[in-house]
Structures are given as C-alpha cells and as structure tokens.
Amino acid sequence: MLVEYLLLRMVFQVILLSTDRWAEKDVNPALFSRELMRNSSNFLNDAEVNRDPQSLLMKAHAATSSIGSATVIIAMLEKTGTLKIASEGDCGLKIIRKGQVMFSIYPQEHYFDCPYQISSEAVGQTYQDALVCSVNLMEGDTIVSGSDGLFDNIFDQEIISIVSESPGVDEAAKALAELARKHSVDVTFDSPYSIEARSRGFDVPWWKKLLGAKLIGGKMDDITVVVAKVKTVAVPEDEGGDIEQQQGNEQGIAVAVASAEQNEE
To answer: What range(s) does the PPM-type phosphatase domain occupy (predicted)?
Structure first.
C-alpha cells in the first residue's frame, strides 16, 4: 500500500541582501540579486545540481554577470524530511517545533555587521565559503527564514508567538515582516541588534553612560521573510514505505523566491 503524503510547498528559498557601497558606485544592487535568483530557478532541476543547495549556488553564481553582491541562503527539503541548507552571510533560518526553536543558522561575518557575501568581484566569497548543513524535520515543523533585517529586529519568542497565532504561513510571514519593520524604526526598542552591538563593545559615549543611557534601537535594513510548514514526511522505503513508486517526476521541491529589495511578504 502506498504511503500517502503531501509535498511541502517550498523549498528552494534564496534570500539576498545587497550592500550600500554599490549605490555609492552608481550600481543598482538589485540587479545582481535578481539575476542570481533567475539563474538559481533555471538550474533548480539541473542534473549536476542534484538537489544540492551548495551546487546550485555554485552554478547560479557562475552564470551571473551583473555587478553587485549579496548574502544568500538556499534550503531544499526532501520528501523524507531532510532539509539541506547552504548559507552565505547573515541571513538566518530557524526551525520551530512544538513552540520552541529547535534549530538555528547563525551569521558568517568577517567582523560585527560585516557579513560574508557572494559577489561579482574576485575578492568576494564563493560557494565554497558557504555554511553547509542539514536537519531532519518532522510533520508540523515550521521553517522561518529571512534576511538580517528580520532577525536583527525580532526576538525568538516574538517569532514563536506570531507563528503560533497566525492562521497560515502567508499571514505569519506578513506579520513577521511588519513587526520587523516596526521595530527597525523604533529608537526606543532594545533590539537583538542593539544587544549584540553592546556585547561586541559598541555603545554610547561614556558621558551618556554616566547618565544611564545605553545603545538601543532597531536596525533599518532590507526585510525578507519566508515561512513554510511541513505537512507530511514520507517514510523511506527501508522503513516500510514504498515511495519509489510515487516519485515519478516529482522531487519534493517547489520554488519560492525573495529578492534583495525591501520585501515585507
């Protein structure tokens, strides 16, 4: 008897963030991001990629001719529940299970607020510098991924609350983006970014400290959010399932793309 399953409607998620320095050189930073996205989509089912996110990043980057740079995270979910991830820079990904964050991707950076970036320039990082890992997911797990504009402005407990209270993943993504935007412009909000900055030695001048002041406030930045939920995990053949007969042309992967522009969905 075939094991019934539902494909999760994701997971090729690529989240990008361009740098301000390109604007200073009169370069549109979105062009690099958009071309990288198009190339990633085009190579998604390439035989050489073989559903490997790092290989996909390699091919997409090699085919991108626009000038610019970006941080990026690519995650691919297999029908068996294995989420494969390649992350370059300070985008993030969290897995929420039963009301708790049970897995997180942390930033790659040269120093505080200077993340790794994949770039059109030879001096930038390449696919080989990506953080590569995998995690086994369960039915009901929620995947929340986004640019640093999300995670620098929202605490884990806020993410958990919004995900649990939202009727669906679309609503959760919109609510997270809106809260991140609200916090980013709030100069009185003691954000994850300001807390991290203080822990790295950044703060107000000493004389303001004497008056009881400290470095606080959100971080204005591009905000990109992708939320997905695992519906059903297929049982591998050696565990009693007969998924070989179900495969056909389906690979358990769908596509969702988010650009480097201000994106609140």
So the answer is: 1-230
pTM (2 d.p.): 0.82
Peptide bond just before 11 cis, omega within 30 deg: yes
Phi, psi of 18 (to 5 degrees): -90, 165
Range list of β-strands (E), the chain: 13-14, 69-70, 72-77, 82-88, 92-97, 100-104, 109-111, 114-115, 118-119, 131-136, 142-146, 225-229, 256-257
Name the nearest CA neighbour of 69 among 36, 38, 24.
36
CB-CB contact of 80 with 236 (8 Å): yes
C-alpha separations of 103 from 83, 97, 213 in Å: 11, 9, 34
Residue 105's alpha-carbon distances to 31, 117, 131, 186, 230, in angstroms, are: 26, 16, 9, 26, 18
Task: Report the C-alpha gap between 219 and 212 in whole angstroms.
Answer: 22
| Distances in whole angstroms, Cα of residue 77 to Cα of each of 45, 66, 156 | 14, 29, 23
